[in-house]
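Fold this sequence, please.
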Amino acid sequence: MDVLFHFVMAFAGGYVLLKGVRSGRHFGWGRLFLLSFLVGLIDVEHLTGHPPEVVFTHNLTFALGLPLLLFLAFRYADKKRNGENATLKTLQVCSLVAMVLLIGHLLADMISGIYGIPLLFPFSASLFLLPYSWNLIEINGSYVIATEGIAVALYFALVFLCVIAHKRFSRKE
């Protein structure tokens, strides 16, 4: 997937997510732009010459682990300051949004990659790619439903599930 598609998909998903959880007032367009750009930077790893089975950023361990560790660190620091630091709250939101955007990046790479991505690295070197057999309903050599559309739909389903989960979790507090 090209850099522009990664950026636009991340930016759109981040915007919907932030609007859905009403965190946009603490976030700002500049931060969303920067975060969307940073999520695309994991593709720099393709320039290192590593074989596709050994890329360190294109897997769930990185996409879930790094943002979660950052979130927990910012949350701990915020609790130490009695939850009064707006910057730490913003960084917590940034790390959770980054997690969703990174998963979207992985989905995008799973639809267009030649080899696939090592989704379960370092636990497995198996490469995952959305199968072309998911292309449905061919009319005159063009698909009505294709893997690209399925991946984007899965990504936005994840975004909306995060919004719904946030709303349910927030009600219980």
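Residues 3-172 form one domain. The longest strand covers residues 136-139.
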